[in-house]
Amino acid sequence: MSTTVLIIDDSETVRQRVQHVLLDGHVATNVLFAKDGLEGFKLLLNNRIDLVLCDVVMPGIDGFKFLSLKKARSELVEVPVIMLAGTASDVHAKVRGLEAGASDYLTKPFDDEELVARVKVHLKIKGLQDELREKNQRLEELSNTDGLTRVVNRRHLMELLDLEFTRARRYNNALSFVMVDIDHFKAINDRYGHQVGDEALTAVASVLRQDLRRNDVIGRYGGEEFSLLLPETVGDGARVVAERYRKRLEEYQLNAQGERIRLTASFGVAELAPELTNLDALVRRADAAMYQAKHQGRNRVVVAAMDGSTERDNVGS
Predict the structure, then answer these.
(1) 128/188 same-domain check
(2) How far is CA 199 from the centre of its chain?
(3) What pTM did the predictor assign?
(4) Catalytic machinery residues
(5) Residue 14 belongs to a domain with what CATH number?
(6) What is the pLDDT of residues 24-61, one digit of tens each?
(7) Nearest-CA neighbor of 300 among 254, 239, 253, 221?
(8) Is residue 169 domain-shared with residue 84, that is, in the same domain?
């Protein structure tokens, strides 16, 4: 595994010595150099750095100012910094550095074996922290994702809807919500079995994931129902999105037991309106429009009018 260490020191002699010690001790595979804190900070921003060795006293941006710059960037907080101090007697400087974010201190002239040992310790700690962070991120993803279709689950969908609803209300932004229900899904399950039913759900989710904007969200609402959360989108725009997915589903065919199964869905679109004072009202309006699409013959998009009534939209064959 590649390990990169950044050495920040205005002394070329110190930089070269530290490099040799780290490479000879097999604790670093790559070493970067900087003559002052500003140059070091730029390298830290633009490279994947595992650990920093930084002199305290340097011209221009010294070690303390470097720590301040680093501390202001959340993505750099976890990178350990070992400060290189010129004297062992300045306890105040050590305390100041540790409070500013330094992980450890070494006093010049340092012992080579001690330098290697301390670097190894902090690299190990960082490795364990990175591993824990990755596992926590994975757990969070799993807790927010529907296990079958790999889109967000209903709980997380409603959390995101609540966030977008609040934001839209506060800043007077547009917001649309779309309910999607697979047509004749029970018949698919009854005729071909639940495994094919699961394949149909996965296929629909895959189609709905296509071409989503960065802030759009596709979630599994429950059973054979999915939802599209479309921030900063008016009703007409949501209608276009829904119709695009309706056509794609209509053109999609699922192969099962030697047969080609046609998949279609009914879409209900609702736009945030002044009278919708909570997100449940927005969901109910989209749900009502979706059921209206079912009653009108399925495989179509129905948009709820701003007064809560429904408007018939494009109809599939």
Answers:
(1) no
(2) 27
(3) 0.66
(4) 224
(5) 3.40.50.2300
(6) 989 999 999 999 999 999 999 999 999 999 999 898 89
(7) 239
(8) no
